[in-house]
């Protein structure tokens, strides 16, 4: 497994310019399958996207001398950008034919690909739409299990499903970086169980003050720069 940790002083999610902005910029592409007749549930899509990011970070091709390792290093040396696009039918089949990893949830399928330059997307991914990833939860989301890592969404921000999927992926990645090797091994072995919930407005200030990994968006799309979007509440990181 990789050991790509970063200091908070040079976090790739900081909104202010830093050394990472001087490096060539890459993006991690994620594609969510949204068929007209059977779209995934919103929360399941967010959770599946977060697990997809973790799957990419830990895949043997992403570390050491793996075939994706150079791209992963270049991506993590710059801003940690993620872009979620949608596909269905033949679009999804073409995306599946490209090198990547498909992660399946209860109703969601998300394929994650090794990082590409901002202006160097493969043709079959570049043509996919970013908009149109508005999803709903047809059933109530079960309460958070305190034994499972929870990615808490800011209750004061309205994000499209695609934007929220990218933010959940950011939060999972920050949690991964801060875990001990033992905690990483356990999470990986369990298949990266996690949940995504919108925090209660009254709880959000305490979550952001708890010293847990917190995503502060750079403001490229949808929300204001510096907005705290997600807090990664992993049991192994509580009370440090």
From TrEMBL:
Residues 1-10 have a biased composition (Polar residues). One of its GO terms (molecular function) is peptidyl-tRNA hydrolase activity. Its EC number is 3.1.1.29. It is an enzyme of class 3 (hydrolase). SUPFAM superfamilies: Peptidyl-tRNA hydrolase II (SSF102462). The keyword Signal does not apply. This is peptidyl-tRNA hydrolase.
């Amino acid at each position: 497994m990789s050991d790509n940790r970063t200091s908070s002083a040079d976090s790739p999610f900081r909104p202010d310019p830093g050394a990472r902005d001087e490096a060539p910029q890459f993006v991690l592409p994620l594609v969510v399958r949204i068929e007209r007749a059977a779209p995934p549930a919103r929360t399941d899509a967010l959770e599946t996207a977060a697990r997809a990011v973790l799957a990419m970070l830990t895949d043997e091709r992403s570390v050491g001398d793996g075939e994706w390792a150079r791209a992963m290093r270049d991506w993590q040396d710059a801003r940690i950008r993620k872009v979620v696009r949608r596909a269905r039918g033949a679009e999804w089949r073409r995306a599946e034919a490209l090198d990547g990893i498909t992660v399946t949830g209860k109703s969601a399928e998300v394929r994650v690909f090794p990082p590409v330059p901002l202006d160097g997307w493969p043709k079959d991914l570049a043509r996919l739409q970013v908009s149109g990833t508005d999803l709903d939860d047809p059933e109530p989301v079960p309460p958070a299990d305190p034994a499972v890592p929870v990615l808490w969404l800011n209750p004061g921000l309205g994000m499209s499903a695609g934007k929220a999927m990218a933010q959940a992926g950011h939060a999972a990645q920050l949690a991964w970086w801060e875990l001990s090797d033992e905690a990483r091994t356990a999470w990986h072995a369990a298949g990266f169980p996690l949940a995504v919930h919108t925090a209660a407005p009254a709880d959000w200030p305490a979550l952001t003050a708890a010293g847990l990994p917190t995503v502060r968006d750079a403001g490229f799309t949808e929300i204001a720069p510096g907005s705290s979007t997600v807090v990664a509440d992993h049991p192994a990181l509580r009370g440090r």
